[in-house]
Design goal:
Blueprint: H1 6-24, H2 27-31, E1 36-39, E2 55-65, E3 89-100, H3 106-120, E4 123-124, H4 126-137, E5 149-154, H5 158-168, E6 175-185
Parallel strand pairs: 1-2
Antiparallel strand pairs: 2-3, 3-6, 4-5, 5-6
Helix pairs in contact: 1-3, 1-4
Length: 199
Amino acid sequence: MSAALAIAGVSAALEAMLTQGLTEQRAAMALGTMPTVSVRPPRADDTADGANAPELCLFLYRVVEKGSLRNIALPTGGAEDRTRHDPALALDLHYLLTSKGTSGLQSEVLLGSALLTLSSSPVLRREAVQSALQDAFGDLGLAPRKDRLTIALTNLRLDELTQLWRALQAPFRASVTFQVSVVLMESASGTGALPHHAR
């Protein structure tokens, strides 16, 4: 995929996955209304548009270079298996997922649905990213890749979670954090794939 769209594609695919999970787990039946999934920071002002609807909020709060893959030249896949001199930028994406209900146990229902979806789909396939990109931006003629992205829950310490919410300047809500790895951002000339040992 185009390097400029790699991060956006992952966020779009996660949004689609969580929305599908809410449908499959019949969250709307439990909540009495269909919740929404938004890709944005938690709002400081919950009186904004849509504040009266149950919601999952997906927020990319940190992007970290994968140090173990820094400066590793990737194979070109050519007949001579030549090594590239412009290795892809390998990134780990860190997300905050929050839930907001309007009454009763809605927030807990939403968070439970999201956790079940993430734990039952620990691999985000490139085909899902390509499909989400097409839905968001139209047909860009991007060639699908074969490597996969892994999803893993992360456990922030209480002080780390407190600092994150303080920086957001939003009311604290039930939340979880997770990581998507490894996202490759390649130059236009790059055609390599993630080394087998690092997948």
